[in-house]
Amino acid sequence: MKQSKFPKGWDEERVHKVLAHYEIQTEEEALAEDEAAYEDRTQTTIDIPVELVPAVRELVAKYQTLQHPKTAADNSG
After folding, report:
1. What is the pTM assigned to this prediction?
2. Within 10 A of 25 (CB to CB), how many other CB atoms are there?
3. What distance in Å separates the CA atoms of residue 61 and residue 30, rounded to the nearest whole number?
4. Alpha-carbon span 68 to 49, nearest angstrom
5. Digits of tens for pLDDT over the chain (77 positions)?
6. Most C-beta atoms within 10 A of its C-beta, which of 24, 48, 54, 68?
């Protein structure tokens, strides 16, 4: 069996917790969570060409490292 590779800070237990969260979530809870994400004024959602995704991810990682050196390193993948 192939060993799964997780991003830094993630393991099988964390993956199961995230899956369980979404599996037991009601439609109303999911909608509220989605709406809250769109109301967050500290982030935005944009469409970009797929080929630019790696460059954008790199920029976000650099930004996070500058803003929060310890947490960015723990969550990078």
Report:
1. 0.50
2. 13
3. 27
4. 28
5. 566 788 888 999 999 999 999 999 999 999 999 999 888 898 888 999 999 999 999 999 999 899 887 654 555 44
6. 68
Distance between CA 76 and CA 10 in Å, rounded? Answer: 10
Closest to 64 in 3D by CA, of 50, 75, 53, 52: 75
Return the SS3 of 6: coil
CA distance 71 to 65: 8
Assess contact for 15 and 6: CB atoms under 8 A: yes
Query: What whole-number distance in Å separates Cα of residue 1 and Cα of residue 3?
Result: 6
Residues in the chain: 77
User: What are the Cα distances from residue 33, in Å, to 14, 16, 23, 57, 75?
Assistant: 19, 19, 14, 23, 21
